[in-house]
Amino acid sequence: MNSLDPITFDNSYAQLSGVFYSHQLPTPVSSPKLIRVNHQLAQQLGIDPEWLESNEGVAVVAGNQIPNGAIPLAAVYAGYQFGQWNPQLGDGRAVLLGETLAGNGDRYDIQLKGSGPTPYSRGGDGRAPLGPVLREYIVSDAMANLGIASTRVLAAVTSGEDVFRDSALPGAVLMRVGKSHIRFGTFQYFTAQGDIEATRQLADHVIQRHYPQSLAAENPYKDLLDRVIKAQVDLIASWQSVGFIHGVMNTDNMLLSGETIDYGPCAFMDDFDPDKVFSSIDRAGRYAYKNQPGIAHWNLVGLAQSLIPLLNNDETTAIALAQESIDAFPTLFNNAYHRIMREKLGLTKILDGDEALIKNLLELMTEERTDFTLTFRRLSELASSHDDQSLRPQQSIREIFELPTAFSTWISQWHERIDEEEATTQEISKAMLAVNPVFIARNHLVEQVISSATQQSDLKPFHTLVDILEHPYHYDSRCSEYAKPPQTDQVVKQTFCGT
Ligand code: AMP
Ligand code: MG
């Protein structure tokens, strides 16, 4: 093995016809320095984390050296952004180095982000400031540790160069890993041009790569559509279950793989409010928490339209097939959502009244503005024998959070409901503590970390936060500051796109 073969590439996207991308090298930066390597992810991918931390690894993450086997390219796509059609987007500040196979045979893209301009930069500088790079690292890792499908950051470096937004900011580059970067908008780019052959080639690629089971179906493209819908359903249900607001659910930010991508203006909610919006550019609240399932449905309609020419030679039949798949969304979503919410409340049986119980809880939380995460965490503790004395003091959040008395009636009804379960209340409590996180990537913590890094060049708070978020379900009162909701003066009301 040559010293520049530490990543074993096996590139399939680059084998597709040239209409899908432009060959594009990253633009080197002046003096890259390591921020962090995700050791656990590196090991999963069979890449030596110590190599990634070496000078050579840092040079590769920075885009200053191209590893053997890479075929760097920028992919083209389009998209509906806040409902408006944009016919020409693409990797404007990212370059796909190639794909690698993990030990279990799963294929992963290795992409650089912030690596310089491409033919799709549309006048942008192709760069990323340090703040948004740290945000993407922290939040995507937190999501993955919560078991939510997500693209992840394998490594990040500072560039030693400034990027200019409203002011000069330190620049950074990250290495992103995902099952692929094929977006709803990738299909839409080709449909808009009436390029059915490209649409078919892309669909075949997605089937082979993500949904090989579809090949056995009577109509593989319809089966593909159904599987993508199911993946979105599961993804959005999991977002809702942790109070995650994506913020830019444009069709160019939705992946066929069903992983979360684009950690720009995203945020986890503190106090529960279904109308909550964080993104500074989302003035109409299009991507508010409560709208996320409906927007996913809308985005899927766009994808289904792209696939219509593949579904059947007869257009009327094809449209009917697409409609059938799309119409399944509300029920699929409702089922997936309630499955997770029942689990969060310790309910394994499906009984009449469960959905009302969940709805009443969320209404109460909205009225009382209780913290989303800590409400479920505290309920997990309170499941046990109607008191939580079985938890040692350092394992309980009762010192930092208690439910208001307005919850008493609801809690009694819920206790009656969990009495219907076979498991003991202690077992129920344990199961709930394993699915209701105590540590989430709270916005005020993320902002503090970014401010230390950018203003004092201090990355220690970043490392501490990433370390804590590796264990979202393990409470230790010595880390209580990381579990607490923000003080009034710490509340972050808006997030900004990482451009
Ligand atoms: P995003 O808001 O990150 O989803 O980006 C939307 C589009 O703008 C994508 O095509 C990006 O590649 C592109 N873009 C965002 N920031 C930059 C930048 N600084 N330079 C060039 N292109 C960018
Ligand atoms: Mg994007």
Topology:
Blueprint: E1 21-23, E2 33-37, H1 39-45, H2 49-53, H3 55-62, E3 73-81, E4 84-90, E5 94-101, E6 107-113, E7 128-129, H4 130-145, E8 152-164, E9 168-178, H5 184-192, H6 196-210, H7 220-242, E10 244-245, E11 267-268, H8 292-311, H9 315-327, H10 329-344, H11 354-368, H12 372-382, H13 408-418, H14 425-433, H15 443-456, H16 460-469
Antiparallel strand pairs: 1-3, 2-8, 3-4, 5-6, 6-9, 7-9, 8-9, 10-11
Helix pairs in contact: 4-15, 4-16, 5-8, 6-8, 7-8, 7-9, 7-10, 8-9, 11-13, 12-14, 15-16
The protein binds adenosine monophosphate and magnesium ion.
Percentage of residues in DSSP E strands: 5-15%
Helix content range: 40-55%
Alpha-carbon distance between the two ends: 38 Å
Supply the helix-strand structural class.
alpha+beta
How many helical elements? 16
Mean pLDDT: 96
The major beta sheet can be summarized as: 6 strands, antiparallel
Topology order in helix (H) and strand (E) letters: EEHHHEEEEEHEEHHHEEHHHHHHHHH
The Rg value, from CA coordinates, equals 23 Å
Weakly predicted, low-confidence segments: none
- The number of distinct structural domains comes to 4
Shape field: globular
